[in-house]
Amino acid sequence: MGLLLHSSGPRPILMIAKEVYALLRDHIRSYESLEVLLLLRRERTMWTAEALCAHLKARAPLIDSALATLVRAGLVNATDQTLQALYTYAGDDPARDAIVGSLDRLYRDERIEIVQLMSANAIERLRTSTIRALADAFILKKDNDRG
């Protein structure tokens, strides 16, 4: 795993593996997603969304959104039961498990820096989205009536 020096401003914040940075940038869009992923990895048991809400003291819509994102990313498995889904950590890939384990250690040891990095990622996603929307607004379309 290569290391990436992440900084925001004049002083370096954190030495972080490129793979961990990519995981945060590409798949962890909220603090709830981070907390759910790390809890499921640590516990390695089946959880209902309701139990996750209670354990993390978070509202259901936030946990539901986090679970949907993590399932789409392949980081969490969902098993449909008769009345509700059960969620487990998808730890079958040793390389990815090592990356999530590194993230877990960093979050435990450097919580503020990870939160700052997540905030910077969110701002970058917003900037990129705004630039795309602005560019799309200026796309010239051929007028079919004028041929």
CATH superfamily, please? Winged helix-like DNA-binding domain superfamily/Winged helix DNA-binding domain
- Structural class estimated from helices and strands: alpha+beta
Q: Helix tally?
A: 6
Overall 3D form: globular
For the record, what CATH class applies? Answer: Mainly Alpha
Pattern of helices and strands: EEHHHHEEHH
As residue ranges, the low-confidence spans are none
Domain count: the total is: 1
Kindly state the number of beta strands: 4
- Here the CATH topology equals Arc Repressor Mutant, subunit A
Helix percent band = 55-70%
The end-to-end distance, rounded to whole angstroms, is 55 Å
Mean pLDDT: 84
Give the percentage of residues in beta strands.
5-15%
CATH architectural arrangement: Orthogonal Bundle
Strand line-up across the major sheet: 1-2
Radius of gyration: 19 Å
